[in-house]
Amino acid sequence: MSYGARVRRWQQLLTPLGTVRFASAARATIIGFAINAVLPGRLGEVLRPYLLARREQLSVSGTIATIVLERVLDLIAVVLLLGVFLVGFADSLPLASRPVLTGLKVGGAFAAAGAVTLLFLIGVAAGSPDRAGRLVGFLARVLPDPVGVLAERAMVTFSRGLGLARQPGRLFRAFIWSFPLWLCVAGSAWAVCHAFGIDLPLSGSLLLMVLMVLGVAVPTPAGAGGFHAGFQVGATGFYEAPLEAAVGAALVLHVISFGPVALLGLVWMVRDGVTLRSATDLAASSRAHDGSQAEAVSVHPGMVIDGQSPGRGAA
Question: Could you list the residue range(s) of the whole structural domain that residue 221 is in?
Fold first, then answer.
């Protein structure tokens, strides 16, 4: 359910670039998260928009911009859910955990300020793509001419991908999808905790979800290590869960959260002819040339997308 909400939100964010089918957005999303699950460095975040842009004939730079906007909306939603917990349910926590809770409050305040700043900058860039492109062009004059020209074009297209920021109503509708997404994540944590005999209240799943988000921020494959540490700290430190139960629940929740999507994504990768090596090369060296829908992206030889190798008619 959380991935379904994520895909639906991405469709909304892509509206300024064109109409995107749910199946296409879902396929690119699952493959991208599968790459994230098996490789470090969040390479799937670059591969995901590229695959969708190729399939739906969209601008690569503009599609990547929607991923940036996605992350800002995620940050705002998580901070708001943390605020709901702090305002309504923090008093129920043990006194011994209050110092950690104070740190979360300070971190949440900084995250909220950062999210508001990013949203403002996105609005400025979306409101004047050409001006943003000229600014990048000015900064790129110290570089060789081809690089400066490409940077300016990419910035203009990138800014256009943020076009939903100029439409508050549609942006709000896209943002609303962030709440079922993260509430599903919190709900899964609550269900697994109860399966392991951990007495986690529904409100506590919000706090646990925030700690898992902090853990997944560490760029390891599928958030391994950080995910488990965030869950374990929340379950044992705030809700006095036995260590063995917390470790077992963290392992099972991790498999449930990342295992099915990784398997499905790898199956679709095989069907599309996308190998881990080609995905790594593509994500590491991807570069866009935007000109009347023409995109130039470095692709590993043998990579096939939609049954076609990127030769004739494809960059």
Answer: 2-285
* Number of H-type helices and E-type strands within the chain: 13, 0
Output 315 or 162, whichever has higher pLDDT.
162
Contact between residue 62 and residue 157 where contact means Cβ atoms under 8 Å apart: yes
Q: What is the pLDDT of residue 78?
A: 92
Alpha carbon distance 244, 149 (integer Å):
57
Q: At 268, is the secondary structure helix, strand, or coil? A: helix
Q: Collapsing DSSP states into helix, strand and coil, what is residue 156?
A: helix
Tokens of 227: 């995910």
Please state the pTM of the whole predicted model: 0.76
Angle formed by the axes of helices 22-38 and 276-285, to 10°? 100
Q: For residue 46, which of 34, 58, 32 has the smallest C-alpha distance?
A: 32
Q: Kindly tell me if the per-residue pLDDT of 296 is higher than 60.
A: no
The token duo for 264 is: 């499905």
Task: Show the CA angle centred on residue 36, arms to residues 106 and 186, nearest 5°.
Answer: 50
Neighbours of 111 (CB within 10 A): 18
**For residues 9 and 181, is the Cβ–Cβ distance under 8 A?**
yes
Question: What number of other Cβ atoms are within 10 A of residue 297's Cβ?
Answer: 17
In a domain, 299, yes or no: no
Phi/psi at 290 (5° precision): -100, 115
Number of domains in the chain: 1
Q: Which residues contact 144 (CB under 8 A, 6 or more apart)?
A: none
